[in-house]
Each structure stands twice: as structure tokens, then as C-alpha cells.
């Protein structure tokens, strides 16, 4: 559909919420791309060449020019393939809010959830749970329509995909309950709607494998500390 | 100069590198604004109302609508007052790189420098020094012209202002040497050029007071740990 824009390559890992963000954005835009699955224990020479600073996925390579950092890539995709499914709002103030909230998810929600789930020290873990609940409450209050983007998915929804799909898998793996229908009815319903969106649904990892991955991470952090 | 865009208010703290970023951007654009100095030990009701999520400076209020997070504000300023001194490049790929590097400064350089300067544990502090030198080296390699923005100041220069002015003050306060002419000749020269730019120069805090502030911070973190 967007073939005339040249060659698009994506380096990702199936279980990575950050790489999945880019896949969802590309598919919402109808962009054809070649996908390369990385093995993070044995990173490819190309990944290290394209992202020498962070050495992480995702990396998008457009006509030979690499870009890293998922939120940076999402904005690039929106500015490059601008005629189909806007990912950021049009007005400067709304764009700024979308940037604010997508950063908020990465800077506040994700670290809090990780602390609540995988910290060994009980006091720290309880603090993580408290911070997670606070940060989810702030998102709950912010959710005024079906999606953060209104009636369609925008960059905040894509960033928050972690909360819709990865968080419930973490909860199952480590025996934690944060995102419940009772506590956060709007966010809970949003999570169901978001993960059932056809393009999102086909770009999510296999749930069982993800739960297994988080169980192993939980076990290894608890073993390492003994 | 830009009076027809309505009322612009900025809530900041004189010593904050993040609030200073916004002042520099507004003045590069020739935007008239009203400045409110906050006392972080006794935050104003307005600051808490305008930034309930982070409760931090800077907050920009444009025609009654508040925005927080300095890099988000810089992009908003660039998109709103677009006819004078671009702060982001015009092409999507260059814009993405500018976003990448300004985030890199906040996510990598600043935490490493803070760790090197103010961590009490010697091993952690040495690790911070190593990470600081690595992250400065990456910026040194990235600096290909007079400024990160080429011949004029862009968002990366404004974000890196911390390295040009605050870092040397921290070095003096805690007896550390990171940004030297010998190790990083391009970055060192950039720091001198950047802080001597007339608009930057008039929007920097008083050096002596800043050194005093960091000396007190260093002393209090060392006392607290005993």
C-alpha cells in the first residue's frame, strides 16, 4: 500500500512490548515491512550496527537509515506515512498531551509495575505496588473516551499496550492483582477493546509463552538474591 | 513580537536546567511571557493545579492550558510559534534523530552524572563516573558541527545545556573532572559556544549560587548516609 516510500525493515523480539508498538503502528498505516526476529542473548551484527547506543530492539530501518526508541519511531512513522490513520493528534496542544502521556507510561507506569512484580525486597515490592496503583489511577482518570486517542487508537493507546496485555500476563505469572475491573473499570474495558482491535490482536505475542517468560524472570530474580 | 498568540506564563525555578530550557526556547522564538518563580519547598497552589501528575517545574501555560515536561514543552513551542528560529529540524528523519538525542541526554547522561557526583557508595560512584564518560564520549562523536543543530541551536543543544553549564558547576562543587578539553575537545568547545550565545547567556543562573547549591546537596547526601 505504501510501497513507493521505499524499503522498511524492523528488528524486533516477539515478546517485546516496545517492538510490538512499532509493528502495530506500521500495520495501522498499511506499511509493508520486512521483520527480523532478534535473539537478545546473541544479538545480530546488524542490530549492533544500527543501534550502537542502546543495543536494543526495536530498530526501524527505512531506506537504509536506522532509528531506535519505540516512541521516537512511532512519531517518525506518523510523519512519514501521514495520509492514513493519524497516530498523533493534529493540534499542537493535543500532540503535546499525547507525548506527555506516552512518556508517562514509560517513565512512571512501567518502572512501577516492574518494581511491584520483580523486586525481591518486600518493602520495595510493596512500594512498587502502591506506585503502580497510583499511576494506573491517573491513567483511569485520563481515559475519557473508548481510546486515549478518542474513537481511534493513537500513540498513547499504542504505548499503553503494555498495560492491556503484558501486565495481565505478569499478574498471572507472579500472583499479583493490579488491573482489576473493580478498581479501574474504564482502563479494564479499554484493555479488552484495545487487545481485540483486529490489527492489535494479530500483533500480540502468544500469551502462554509470555506468562512462562515472566515466571522464569520471577524465579531467577528470587534465586539470584539468595 | 508574538503577542497575537495570547497569554504565555511559565512556572520555573531559577536553578533548574529544565525550566531554563523553556526560557531559552521562548526567547529564541521571541515570545513574550510572564515568569513565576516557584519555591520547591513550598509549591504554589497554581503549580500543583497545573501539574498534578509530576508536581514539578517547568510548567508552561498558554492561554490557560498547562503543559509539563520540558522536552514536550519545547516541541509545543516549536509547533506553535513556527515562523521564527526552528527548534526541531524540518525533515522527519532529522526530527526523529533530534528527539532521540534529546531523550538520550535526559535518560542516560543526566542520571550517570548525578550518580557520579552525589552517590555516597564509592563503587556506585565510580560506576557513575564510568557511565558519564561513556555517555559524554557518545555525544562527542555525535557533534559534527558548531552546534548539535548544525550552525544554529536546536532542541538537542537546549537539552544538553545541562552539560555545558550545570555539569562544570557540579564538578567544582564536588571535586570531579568529567568534561575536560583534553578528553572531549568538541563537546568542551561546544559548551563554551553554547553558554556564550547571547540568549542562552542571559538565561543561565548565577554560577556561584549554583555551585553553593550543589555543595550543599553533596554535603547533605553524605551526612544522610552516616
Automatic annotation (TrEMBL), chains A, B:
Enzyme class, broadest EC rank: transferase
Reactions that this protein is recorded to catalyse: RX + glutathione = an S-substituted glutathione + a halide anion + H(+)
Keyword Cell wall biogenesis/degradation listed: no
Domain GST C-terminal: 91-214
GO cellular component, one term: cytoplasm
Keywords carried by this UniProt record: Transferase
PROSITE patterns membership: GST_CTER (PS50405), GST_NTER (PS50404)
EC number(s) recorded for this UniProt protein: 2.5.1.18
Protein family according to the UniProt entry: Belongs to the GST superfamily.
Name listed for the protein in its UniProt record: glutathione transferase
Taxonomic source organism: Glycine soja (Wild soybean)
